[in-house]
Amino acid sequence: MNNKLKKWQIAFLVLLVVGAFLIVRQQNVTPYRNNKGFIFGTVYNITYQHSSDLHSLIIEELQKVDGSLSPFNKKSVISAVNSNEDVTVDDMFTEVFTKAMTISRETDGAFDITVAPLVNLWGFGFRSGDLPTDRAVDSLCLLTGFGKVRLTDGRVVKDDPRIMLDCSAIAKGYGCDAVARLLRRHGVENFMVEIGGEVVVNGVSGRRVPWKIGVNKPMEDSLNTAGEFQTTLSVTNLAMATSGNYRNFYYKDGRRYAHTIDPRTGRPVQHSLLSATVLAADCATADAYATAFMVMGMEQARRVLERHRELMAYFIYSDDNGDFAVWHSPALGQYIN
Fold first, then answer.
1. Which of 67, 117, 167, 332 could bridge across to 328 with cysteines, CB 3.0–4.6 Å?
2. What is the CB-side half-sphere exposure of residue 57 using CA atoms within 13 A?
3. Contact 191/201 with Cβ under 8 angstroms?
4. Using an 8 Å Cβ cutoff, are 182 and 61 in contact?
5. Measuring CA to CA, which residue among 265, 228, 264, 266 is closest to residue 246?
6. Average pLDDT over residues 171-192
7. 32-39 β-sheet, strand order
8. Which of 78, 103, 90 is CA-nearest to residue 158?
9. Percentage with pLDDT > 70 across the chain
């Protein structure tokens, strides 16, 4: 009886070793592929390990997101909502709208998908040198506020038909999530999905180590050609998004301030936070919180992080001497190179 048991145990161990060898061999043989393109007004760069090229499926998935959430696509769901058409929204829109409303509540309105008209008003004013009047700002504030829109029976209901929705501060992150889900459905374990700087990573890179992701240093680089990193992070199975108006500063008393509009006041914030990078389980969440933190400033953002231990953040700010300084969540230290 003991001999039979030993033989069975030996056979089982041999099968385990052979199976592990075959899995490792397959992992080493299966190529890493790279797909690039243009979507949402920016570029995407997707690296993944798979026996087949999945680019056509990736493009199809990104076009679904564009067809739901892009205000520049005249046939999109969000364009129909903004035109006050009688439209039943799709699952993608529902998922993003619901998440946006949740994060708006958690940040006391610092994140708000109705703020675009105010951002556009101030953006034009900064470029022209003729800042908006209080009257112009206050009139648009009447049409701003996440509490003035809701989703009822698959339709967006607005308190005022002139309210416009813009999901640009969450859509790139959601696009990364959508592609990540597609890759997982096709059995891909090792991948990096990057759209316009927002990233989802899983597994390991082609070098069999965690993925290395750079955090850009805020630089006054109008052509965005410098590409200098403040730091790099070695991460896996996480999403990361960065918000920061790197190329649009103004100065006051020797300190730099980014042109960021607070949806709650309709006016520019005045704090020294220049860049907010957030790591989360999904990229839509990271994207939205990064935007909210740029509105809130570092102290308020840190209070939100205390309530949401599932998030990690890396902040670059201007110190009292006008130099770059850094604060990050303690848990993030293990990922910093």
1. 332
2. 12
3. yes
4. yes
5. 228
6. 98
7. 32-39, 42-49, 191-195, 198-202, 238-243, 273-280, 312-318, 324-328
8. 78
9. 83
What is the rounded distance in angstroms from the CA atom of residue 302 to the CA atom of residue 334?
A: 19
Q: What is the largest CA-CA distance in the chain?
A: 92
Tell which residue, 175, 225, 217, 179, has the closest CA to residue 196. 175
Name 302's Cβ contacts closer than 8 Å, sequence gap at least 6.
327
Backbone angles phi, psi at 267, to 5 degrees: -130, 165
Is residue 120 exposed (0-12), middle (13-18) or buried (19+ Cβ within 10 Å)? Answer: middle
d(CA 4, CA 144) in angstroms, rounded, equals 76
Residue 113: which of 284, 305, 323, 333 has the closest Cα? 284
Q: What confidence tens digit (pLDDT) does each residue in 109-144 have?
A: 999 999 989 988 887 655 666 778 999 999 999 999
Which residue do the tokens 């998440």 mark? 99
